[in-house]
């Protein structure tokens, strides 16, 4: 059974329980895409800082944050680009998802239009992003399930057809927020390509095991 954990915000270093030695450290670029007001920034804030703000200001351009998760003997560092959802920033999106190893496409379960838009983002990633990119679909605002416009089964079927990870999330209650990042971390390649010296080439991830001072703030427990 896999053992994995999230870091504690505000602590430095990536430490192991019981004095265990530090394993491999891999760095991956992850981008969030989706319509404005679906909760992309709230998901990131919940994941990175464990916080939720009822009224979150719209992102301008993109915001950058980092967080680490631990999988067995591997520490995965996410470099997270939270992109703006407004249409006027759409032309900037390729600049952020270019070279990304992972993406979370977010929609609002109470807004059917945002789900349609999410499908457009998935198609764009499949066409223009790195061929091996791991894509997750997040149906956010699951705390408003009594007002849902997008059925869980509909989104799940779409995700299965397109080879996407899928979870409904709630940044407000923290439902599945950590889980979706952990699921991505587990699916990212961390062994053969890195061990064979292909790390640092961008699309396959960067092995930071010999340069640990670059790890983000956070403590794996």
Structural descriptors:
8-stranded mixed beta sheet; globular; 24% strand; 8 strands; 221 residues; disordered N terminus; alpha/beta
- Runs in which pLDDT lies below 50 for 5 or more consecutive residues are 1-21, 192-221
Q: What percentage of residues falls in helices of 4 or more residues?
A: 25-40%
Distance between the termini: 17 Å
Radius of gyration based on Cα positions: 17 Å
Strand content range: 15-25%
Number of strands: 8
Q: The biggest beta sheet, please? A: 8 strands, mixed
Task: Tally the helices.
Answer: 6
Instruction: Report the structural category.
Output: alpha/beta
What is the H/E order? EEHEEHEHEHEHHE
Shape: globular
Mean pLDDT: 78
Could you describe the 3D structure shown?
The chain is an alpha/beta fold and 221 residues long. The protein contains six helices and eight strands; from the N terminus they run E-E-H-E-E-H-E-H-E-H-E-H-H-E. The protein has helices at 40-49, 93-97, 112-128, 152-161, 177-187, 192-198, and strands at residues 4-5, 24-34, 62-71, 74-83, 102-108, 134-140, 165-168, 206-207. Strands 1, 2, 3, 4, 5, 6, 7 and 8 form an eight-stranded mixed sheet that branches. The two termini are 17 Å apart. The model is unreliable at 1-21 and 192-221 (pLDDT under 50). This is Ras-related protein Rab-5C-like isoform X1. Residues 209-221 have a biased composition (Polar residues). Residues 1-20, 195-221 are annotated as: Disordered. Belongs to the small GTPase superfamily. Rab family. It comes from Limulus polyphemus.
